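Follow-up to my post from last week.
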Amino acid sequence: MIPRTMRALRKIDASHGFALQEVPVPEIGPSDVLIRVRKVGICGTDAQIYQWNHWAQRRVKPPMTIGHEFMGEVAATGAAVKMARVGDRVCAEGHISCGVCFLCRTGEAHICEHVKIIGVDTNGSFADYIAMPESNVWPLDPAIPDAWAAVFDPLGNAVHTVMAAHVSAKSVVITGVGSIGLMAIPVARAAGAASVYAVDVNPAKLALAVSVGADATFDARDPNVIAEIVQRTGGVGADVLLEMSGAASAIDAGLAMVRNGGRAALLGIPSDDVNLNLAERIIFKGLTVLGINGRKMFETWYQTETLVKSGRVDLRPIITHDLPFERFADAFNLMRSGEAAKIVMEVSTT
Amino acid sequence: MIPRTMRALRKIDASHGFALQEVPVPEIGPSDVLIRVRKVGICGTDAQIYQWNHWAQRRVKPPMTIGHEFMGEVAATGAAVKMARVGDRVCAEGHISCGVCFLCRTGEAHICEHVKIIGVDTNGSFADYIAMPESNVWPLDPAIPDAWAAVFDPLGNAVHTVMAAHVSAKSVVITGVGSIGLMAIPVARAAGAASVYAVDVNPAKLALAVSVGADATFDARDPNVIAEIVQRTGGVGADVLLEMSGAASAIDAGLAMVRNGGRAALLGIPSDDVNLNLAERIIFKGLTVLGINGRKMFETWYQTETLVKSGRVDLRPIITHDLPFERFADAFNLMRSGEAAKIVMEVSTT
Amino acid sequence: MIPRTMRALRKIDASHGFALQEVPVPEIGPSDVLIRVRKVGICGTDAQIYQWNHWAQRRVKPPMTIGHEFMGEVAATGAAVKMARVGDRVCAEGHISCGVCFLCRTGEAHICEHVKIIGVDTNGSFADYIAMPESNVWPLDPAIPDAWAAVFDPLGNAVHTVMAAHVSAKSVVITGVGSIGLMAIPVARAAGAASVYAVDVNPAKLALAVSVGADATFDARDPNVIAEIVQRTGGVGADVLLEMSGAASAIDAGLAMVRNGGRAALLGIPSDDVNLNLAERIIFKGLTVLGINGRKMFETWYQTETLVKSGRVDLRPIITHDLPFERFADAFNLMRSGEAAKIVMEVSTT
Amino acid sequence: MIPRTMRALRKIDASHGFALQEVPVPEIGPSDVLIRVRKVGICGTDAQIYQWNHWAQRRVKPPMTIGHEFMGEVAATGAAVKMARVGDRVCAEGHISCGVCFLCRTGEAHICEHVKIIGVDTNGSFADYIAMPESNVWPLDPAIPDAWAAVFDPLGNAVHTVMAAHVSAKSVVITGVGSIGLMAIPVARAAGAASVYAVDVNPAKLALAVSVGADATFDARDPNVIAEIVQRTGGVGADVLLEMSGAASAIDAGLAMVRNGGRAALLGIPSDDVNLNLAERIIFKGLTVLGINGRKMFETWYQTETLVKSGRVDLRPIITHDLPFERFADAFNLMRSGEAAKIVMEVSTT
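User reply:
Got it. Predicted complex:
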């Protein structure tokens, strides 16, 4: 039986923090699915909303249930739902696209201009239940553990970036090994990267990078890092850059590490404008620079499932914490401290 | 008979201007070809060396014969030359690549890191004779007029940019219609662009843009230009940007005019760093940004020949001046005034 | 007011011909649209069903309303329809895909294995009304004439083939200039083909090919045709083959006309197995051979609209007949005689 | 000191077998390199010439020194040689392309129409010395063992096929696991294949396939093999086919195993025409079929080096025999028996 109310972690007003409140269980339309949430993942975006930074102040309209990474079980289905059944174990794409624009009709729904993101623009997943359009739902293979399924969204970001960058038999530099950067390491190796180098300022993250398969790691503040990467890549520079920090200095240095004719995929989001020597960094080098956003629906999801099921992507070292839902404040403190890589929370056990 | 000395337009010291001097005819190595120069084109780069701006001061080591756009006739061949014969009508790729590096051996010689550019790094084409490696020589189809052949180098820049941008059945915006931007208009149309919009600040160039096939032109200073381009392209923005100005404001506005998932090819070279909202202009949009340098050897040359021979690219409106070699000072004054689009000079008539 | 019954051209049993019958107007589901049909196009497939050949006997289960090319006006909409409104002028994609398989979820719905084709697997468009899922409906730009809109399906086949073949600045051979092959000529030119050569056995079709833009045409039975195409394409062969005949001899000769490293797009459907020298025709040459099916949903549709609206694709010479619906028997006789290129029929004038 | 004569394994007339003869050491031109051969590999092509089958009778003009797979040391260099030095450890691309045709000038020298293959069209590598154009020479990384270097040519075939097929995160079927098919297994895994299935009729080769990384193997004569592959690949079929048998039945079955929209790379060379249901196997499925020939110069060579140096490609199980040069007759008998996978021979130890 679906209850009438549920717990939800919410931004209740324009101030710091979240509140765990009792709210009505969402209603579903004819094409929607109601999902009983089991596990959720915490994203840097959630932390920004928690801290109520400038970006959050401009984008989020409280009150709003937060969270977009989750997995759970189908609890109810609308009348026009075709495939999903009550009891199905599922996760979901958190970008709800319009379905009728040029981009949606040409296989580019992940960059639909009318996209709404759950937990940002509309009520999210840090709750006992969430309503989702059936077309966003992803049925889970039984081989995939709950905690991994809960973070298919950021894992999908890593997969989308890696696959767009064409890493097969290539040398790859990753600038920024937060949780998505860390995920990108085994993903790149599984996708055929010949070598993976990680650059960051956090020694703990660099140590984790090695444990998930980086060939070598570099402190971004080391003045020789560009020269060392170039030296390790046949004297010409890396074939591929995966930029996952959003830091202006990392973008500049990362582009300098790529060889002429190389490929740079930018996923990290700079908080401000970036001052760039376009002539030296991109034009003369004949680089291909790719802006990466979200996950391809659903090409990225199939690839993610394939990579996980191949056994070549192991998230255990990256999911550093698995906390009960009630300890959300501890979780956000761990996020801020930089101690955690990826945190998941258990919302329900049934 | 090849004389012992010849005229050459030279940068003789670190000051403004050029001097027309009598110098020895260059010697050729076993794999080289000596070319009697008939017609040359003047590039913005030549004008920068003439004016001795900061870039020129850093790059060029006087004394040096200037010029890289030219056509002429083979006058002598080295012992190991395979195909070229005395009397052949030819032009040549002006980027001399090393031939043995990773990029040269993988079909990317145009971005070889050891490239030398004639007229910049080594003696150039504004002279009665020039020595070139046979592998840089391009035999000219009889259907191609001398003046057009003399500007195959910048026309090749336009072709490389257009072909890299994939314009077939697409809407295209060109920011900056100097001579290469103007050439890109008929090239884009011939290559299948469904519509071509030109943006610049120079009304005379915009008028020329219409005469060579632009569907509409816009003053870059018009605050509504982004909105108008978006409105003319189905409300989503242009499929493709060809950036040919190098101006920071044009790069920013140009990227704003491209639709999500679109493609931007950057050929124009900014003189300084560019301050860019990477998040909004590239990352969230999922853009593909291509740095463009030189011409693909020799894919671009074949494409250029094909496009010219198809009759769909007419350079007559763009080659606004054809002056005798001796009037080089007038030519550079015309360049500076912005009156000219493309200037060619006749070095010899035989 | 929507009547209860309507006229429909039907295959009523396993024999030659069609019957015009009065049948119930189709009912629509919540996500469907009912369309009042105005104009239809006749496809070779319809003629095969008319003649009841082997393919038709295996595939079609009478009784069935025939036809898949059409345009008309929205007459009613289901409760869950989002965008379509009564009175909208529309045509529609005739391949109804399942929407939930791997191919449908990765932008390849045109090759969904569960596809149903209207007029073949389910009731079709040669009737006063047809029901279609809203997601198959294509809103028509007012600039597109009714007769052209009625043949967007085969025009889309031509566009899909041409765009997959990458014709920009390339030489193109088309083998087989039935109606789709003829459409492919202006489409290829508009998409940037540098030259287009047509090969067929029907002199009238070859004459039409010239009138819609072919550079030269060849009788397929001429023993010198391969040599002539090679000679006209720089001695190496055409860059691209568009195979639109389905004839084994044309496939073999067409592949022989393509240069090493070229691209061949196969749309024509051979009625039997084809005996092919794979080593000489494909493997040693390093060809890329593309099987083409249907139209990409809806990338091809956007491209088709763009090409038609650019004014560079003129269907008037190709639509050779526009007959009233009642004269369907004459239409199928014209089809069989080879006199007609494309025939459209007017089902209603309102 | 280079001697005046040397041993060479030669086809001396139009009959079965080879003869080991004393012949003059080849002379080198100004751009050539003389290489002291250390190790050679035996290819199926060599065995065909040995057996003097129909293909060999048509193509090879005795007397001719045989062999195209080899490695050794530079013994002398022509006057115009730029990089190679006496003593360099090298192998070489055995396809000598013309260097001046359209394909050679556009990065497609591997499919140059004027190509000469050493050991087939011109004297080969089964000798103490061989002369090669410097531009064909590949300097060997010290990390690569002699026996592996000797088979870089067929390993390059495997790499070219795998890289053209885009295997990253894909399911891959290989039909035919002779030596190149076997090499393709670890290459595909290293390049990112998510799963690799091998199909052959030889149980010993299938056992080797497992030992080098195949997920599962299938007897090609098993009537359920297509169904099993489809079942293991999500019910849709494999993403990629690598056809390395040249057998008509394997080509047909292999294409049937590929999913709609998949990619098939054909390397195996059928001895006769192949009867193919193009409609069902290629056209309706929307397949991309790639003819594969040789190795890309030198993109494939760099990739091969990268893959070997990454440690993810181990040739030890595949090089089943390493014999002294004098035992060539034993080697060709082993080839014919099907006992051997790859055989190398040691020509000299210095």
